[in-house]
Amino acid sequence: MNRNRIRKAQAKKLTAAALAVLMSTQLCAAPITAQAAGSADSDKDKDNTESQKEESKAVGKDETVYVKTDASGNTKDITVSDWLKNTDGTSSIQDASDLTDITNVKGDETYAQEDNGDMLWTSDGSDIYYQGKSNGQLPVDVKITYYLDGQEIAPENLAGKSGKVKIRFDYTNNSKKTVKVNGKEEEIYTPFLMASAMILPGDNFKNVEVSNGKVISDGSNNIVVGIALPGLEDSLKLDELDLGDRDEIPDYVEVTADATDFKLEMTATVASCGNLDDLGFSDVDSLDDLKDALDELADASQKLVDGSGDLLDGVKELKDGWSDFRDGVNKLDDGAGDLKDGASTLKDGVDAYTSGADTLGTNVQAYVTGAKNLVNGVNGYTAGASNLEAGIKTFINSINEKLGTVGGVVGQLKTEGTEKMLTDAAELPDGSAAVASGVSDLNASLDQLHESAVKIAQAAGGKGTTQTPSTQVDLSGAKQAASDASAANDSAVAQLQSIQASLSAVQDQLNSLTVTDEEGNEIQVADGQAASISEQIASISGAIDSIQAASGSADSAVSQMDAAEDAANAAAQAQQEAGTASLADQLDALADGIAKIEAETTKTSKLGAGANTVADGVSDLYAGIGALDSNISTFQTTLAAMTSEDSELAKGEAELLKGASDLTSNNAALTAGGKELSDKGDLLSAGSVQLSGTSGKLKKGASDLSDGANKLKDGTKELRDASGDVTDGIDELEDGAQELADGMKEFDEDGIQELTGKESDLENVMDRLDALRDADREYQTFTKLAEGMKGKVSFFIESDPVKNED
Q1: Side-chain-side CA neighbours of residue 213 (13 Å)
Q2: Which residues neighbour 395 within 8 Å (Cβ) at sequence distance 6 or greater?
Q3: Contacts of 798 (CB under 8 A, 6+ apart)
Q4: How many other CB atoms are found less than 10 A from the CB of residue 76?
Q5: Which pLDDT band, with edges at 50, 70 and 90, does 646 fall under?
Q6: Cα(389)–Cα(377) distance, rounded to whole angstroms?
Q7: What Å distances lie between residue 117 and 112, 139, 180, 779, CA to CA?
Q8: Residue ranges of the domains in the chain?
Q9: What is the mean predicted confidence (pLDDT) over 724-731?
């Protein structure tokens, strides 16, 4: 059921397409024939129009013949549908037909069969629609032949194949009659117009082409329609006119395509007659009319030649003008590109500007704050400049005062300090020598004392308790030597302490000698000498400590010798008085005293060494004091030279005072300028706020301009590309106009002019045209017509599908 519906829908679509081609063919042909018949007067045209209207009214039977064929075009079934038009609204309609199985398809009207075979329909004023079957000979046969890759193939074998496909429709006109033309009998075929159509799916067919027709695509399918006029070429015998190269009137249709999995649902062919009047042949009633029409055709052809020449000239002018226009478009596109780049650059600049404006606003606020801080600083500076001026004056007075003080201190150092130190230092060698001599005598006495003590002990031990020493121990020399050493030590210490005090005083005075030059740099006077004196004071302190320790050792030795002497004498006395019993005890005490004296002897030996060291140090000290005295003399000379340059110093002081005055002279102007700077800063701050407020609008405007420039550039680019396409089109138009001009000229010279020169040959053609027109009008039905009834017939031929069965 669904398949039948699909086939019916496709049949309707193909029929509509075929009829549309037929109508377009008629409409396209009508202007030519109408122009050829333009010489007929308006009254004649009016008569013909009225005649056609009356004839249309007279048509009482409209017949459609449906033919079913196999895929090759062989007839399988014929169904005829008749429409009896009851234009007068009569109660009955006289009809004739040779159909079988007649059925009323739209109503319940019936008919009665008359003796002569006609039918009388009871219509009650209505039209009658009926159909029936026929096995009669069709006036036109259709043969369909299939080819695959250049080889003929049976349709059932083509289904599902792929390759280059060709489908050819050949039409055989079976309806003809014999007429006399210029005294000779000739066959004239009924002029059937054939239109074959098919639907080729886009998925299965590509590169579809058709001869004598048109391919219409609806996006998914290709609707192919081709037309032919079988027998017309033979009827007219146009070869007798010697028209040269010309296209023959087609009697076939050929369709080619690249097929994939070939399948064809059906083909539909429409055959119709009665078309010559529609094509304008009824307007050519005589040879004179044809001659007039040919003359007008020649004039029209010449006008076409002239018009095609004018068209060519116009196209050339258009080409030249378009070239200038295209150059302008190119410049416009280039300018739009520059505008786009400029707008982009402007946008980037505005973005940077607005960002800078925002940064400027921030920095302006910082600047205003800094300006106010600067004003505060200026105020502080002016106060400081005033204080600086006063300080400079005080500083200059201090320098002058210190220079005088330095001179006095240096003189005092020269006359008092160094001379006394030199005198004391000169006496130190003698004292150190005395210390060394006393230490030597002390050591000799101690040795003597030791020997005496030993002898006493030996004597006591050798003679037992019965022997008494003949003499007492005498230590007076040793004690004198120790006393002399101690005195020498005391004298040396006193001299060293005197020198130490002098050196400390000199050092204090040297440390106080500090002056400042005109450039503000400190000068430490006799700094090296002060350091040297410090070292010498430390050395003297060490020597005093050593001498005092040695002096203590000498005093201790004297005390020990006194004790030893007393012990020895006591021992002798005891021996004499008590005998040897207590002598041993006294000798033991003497032995202890001698041991202590020996220990002290070691210390006095160290005292001797210390005295020698002091002597060496005193020599170095004496040399240092001499050097200090020399340096003080040098410093006095330098100070004298500085004093001689007092004029330069005074000049510098004056310039320094003037500079200080200049610093304070601009204080008022600086203060006023600072105030103005602060006020202007407030205005600048307000302006920066306003600037930041408008930067957003500027940024948006620049962005909109950039977007607009981009769109403009896109548009000009499209225009530029399109102008190139138009240029190509104009070139093609120029070529076409040139071909048209050349073709029209050739058509006029070789066609029209030659045709108008063969008027005598046209008489036979006119006779054939008359016969064709008669044959076209006479064929009104496939079946039969009742007497006095007019008819019109068309054929619809549908072929079987070519496809694999599911």
Answers
A1: 34
A2: 516
A3: 11, 66, 67, 68, 69, 266, 267, 268, 269
A4: 11
A5: low
A6: 18
A7: 10, 23, 34, 21
A8: 394-662
A9: 84
Of 136-150, 155-169, 220-234, 444-458, least confident by mean pLDDT is 444-458
Instruction: Give the burial class of 101: count Cβ atoms within 10 A of its Cβ; 0-12 exposed, 13-18 middle, 19 or more buried.
Output: exposed
Q: Report how far residue 102's alpha carbon sits from residue 86's, in angstroms, rounded to the nearest whole number.
A: 19
Q: Please write the tens of the pLDDT for every residue from 101-146.
A: 999 999 999 999 998 889 999 999 999 999 999 999 999 999 999 9
- Judged against a pLDDT cut of 80, whether residue 97 lies above it is answered with yes
- Does pTM top 0.70 for this prediction? no
Amino acid at 136: G
Token output for 405: 């003080």
Q: 147 — alpha (psi -120 to 50), left (phi > 0) or beta? A: beta
**60 φ/ψ angles, rounded to the nearest 5 degrees:** -115, -10
Residue 127: Cβ within 10 Å count: 18
Continuous segment of H or E residues that includes residue 228: strand 221-228
The beta strand positions in 618-749, using DSSP E, are none
Q: What is the DSSP letter of 522?
A: E
Nearest to 264 by CA among 297, 304, 222: 222
Question: In this model, does residue 522 exceed pLDDT 90?
Answer: no
Residues with Cβ < 8 Å from 583, sequence gap 6 or more? Answer: 460, 465, 571, 574, 575
From the list 434, 281, 478, 389, the residue with the least C-alpha distance to 656 is 389
Cα-flanking dihedrals φ and ψ of residue 166, to 5°? Answer: -130, 135
Tokens of 764: 């036979």
**Structure-model confidence comparison of residues 84 and 567, the more confident one:** 84
Looking at 44-162, which runs of residues are DSSP E strands? 59-69, 75-84, 92-95, 100-104, 111-113, 119-122, 128-133, 140-148, 151-152
Query: Residue 91 has what DSSP assignment?
Result: S
Residues with Cβ within 8 Å of 758's Cβ and at least 6 positions away in sequence, in order, are 241, 242
Q: Is the pLDDT of residue 436 over 80?
A: no
Q: Left (φ > 0), alpha (ψ -120 to 50) or beta: where does 62 sit?
A: beta
Query: Can you say how many angstroms the Cα of residue 243 is from the centroid of all Cα atoms in its chain?
Result: 72
Q: Contact at 8 Å (CB) between 417 and 505?
A: yes
Q: Enumerate residues 6+ apart whose C-beta is below 8 A from 77.
A: 67, 68, 133
* Better-predicted residue by pLDDT, 681 or 71: 71
Q: Is 184 helix (H, G, I), strand (E, B) or coil?
A: strand
Residue 126 burial (CB count, 10 A): 17
Which amino acid, 638? Answer: T
**The pLDDT of residue 24 is above 50:** no
> pLDDT category, 630, cuts 50, 70, 90?
confident
| Contacts with 403 (C-beta within 8 Å, 6 or more apart), sequence order | 515, 639, 642, 643
The pLDDT of 225-248, averaged and rounded, is 83
Beta bridge partners of 189: 176
What DSSP designation does 413 have? I
CB atoms near residue 797 (< 10 Å): 24
pLDDT digits (tens, 9 = 90+) for 384-415: 767 777 877 787 777 667 666 655 655 665 55
- Helix and strand totals (H; E) in the chain: 13, 21
d(C-alpha 742, C-alpha 734), whole Å: 12
Residue 449: CB atoms within 10 A of its CB come to 27
* Contact yes or no for 87/57 (Cβ under 8 A): yes
Look-up of token digits 């004297």: 558
